[in-house]
Each structure stands twice: as structure tokens, then as C-alpha cells.
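tool_call: predict_structure(chain=1)
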Amino acid sequence: MRFRHRLTLGILLAAVILLSACSSIKVSNTAQNTAPEPTAPEPQCKKDADCMRVFGSTLGVCQYAFCEKEICRKRPVQDCCGNGVQEEIENNITGSKCTCPEDYGKCEGNLVYMDSRGREQTSSYIFWACNANAQCEMQYEDTLQKTAEYFTTFAGSGFSFNFYVSYPNPFYHNSSEFRVEYKLTDLDTKVVDPSIKFTEIRLMEGTNILYRAGLNLKFSKVGQTNITMIPMSSYDIIYPEEKKSVILSLDYEYIPLKKTVDADKNEIYTPMDPERKKYQTTIRDPVIFLEKAVAEN
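tool_result:
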């Protein structure tokens, strides 16, 4: 009897546990089934015009509003400056930094370029700006350009010269010129024939010829002057901004005189064969060559 009583109690206890578990599952399922369903967004519009009121002042000049499935949306206007898209035509004109900086970015700032060692350099004299044709091009800071002057003397065999060299620095590659002035300051007609000639002029950097031209300058009297203007547009500049130590080189020729005395003790000066020589001087201040203005692609 005692065993039967214990068995009955065990069965009753198991039944209670099973019923409790089932009740929990039902409660859980009921909670899931009764969760609120997500609500659809409130309709914003029925037609495009309604969206103008929805967006108000947040609607950009180059945006238009439209109604799509009762929701207001924005879309950029094509070929409109300010829509954030770089297009060939902006507001009925060709798009560029000068016609539509809102989309293309501003045409401004100093020129950045790579030097011979592949290092990034920022020009001190060249900047980007819009020209009269609405092109973004390299331009020069004119206020930084000064006239540089160099003076030197040259004493030859029986004659002397003063040289005056002037040039704008920075030197605009496509428009500036060097000015070289010669002045005969001394001439001994007992040593040299009064016919000093300069036959060629060069501007050089080391052994590299930047400019070369023939001359036909003759000097026969003290005080005589002459001027040579040297354009540099033919020089092939490699980088937008180049700093060079420039050498002025001149080829010249003269006729020395040989002195003899005749039987009557008269001095006779006989012309000898022409002497051809070269004179060089390094211009004191380095020359800063700037590239000609080029429009941005």
C-alpha cells in the first residue's frame, strides 16, 4: 500500500510540471501573435505640387520634387549649375570652373607641379584664374615681378667695355626679354685696330645653351654704345617654374697691331691676323623662368 501511494504522488507531480510547461508555451505564443503590426508611413502627397510644400526652402535651385507612391522625393535638374554633377552644358553654356564653380570647383590657388625628382612643388608666382574667355588658366602675380640689373666690366687687349644687363624677374617665358647694353669705355689705337666686333651672343646654364644668336656689332670710338634684346620664347622650358643661374657668353674679335720703328725712328703700327676670343660672365641674381599661360584642360 505504501508503495502504491508513493507511485500515485509521483504521477501527479509529473502531470503538474507538464501542464505548467505547456501553459508557458501558450502564453509565449499568444504574446507573439498579439504584437502590433508596423504601420505604413503617412501619405505625403497625391501629386508633384504637394511636394513643394513638403520640402519648402530645403529644395535646391537645381532640384525638383515629385510624388512617388504618396512619398515626396528629390531629383537633380539636368544641365543645371548647382546640381552637383559636372555636365558638358551648365545653364545653357559650356560647363567649367569659370562658368559653374558650384559643380566643377573654383578656379583658384597657386599652381602645384612635380619637379625633376618627382616632388610636389607649389609655385610662388603662378596661380589659376579665369581669363576673359571664361577659361581657367595659369596667370602671373605681376606685383611680384621686379627689374633685376647687373653691371660688369670687361678689359680686352687694348680696349675695355662696360656691360649692363637688365631683365624682369620673374621672367615671363613667352613675353619678357633680356636687355644687354654695351659701351666702349677705352680704346688704345696703338695696340688694337679701332674695329672691335661682337659676333655671337649666348645665354647659358652651365654648358646648356638657353639662347644663341649671331651678332654684327662694331665699335670704333670711345663712348659708343649698342643694345641687344634677347627674347626667350624659343627656349623649351620643361617645368612651369624654373630657377637658373644664367651665364652671358659673347664671341668677339679684334685686330692687334704690331709696333715697329723705321730708320727715321717713326713708329709704324701694322695690323696682325684677327684674334677671336670668348668672354663670359655669370649674371648675379638667379633668373626665375615662368611658363607661358596655358588654359586648364
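agent: The domain at 146-290 is CATH 2.60.40.2050 (Immunoglobulin-like). Proceeding to next step.
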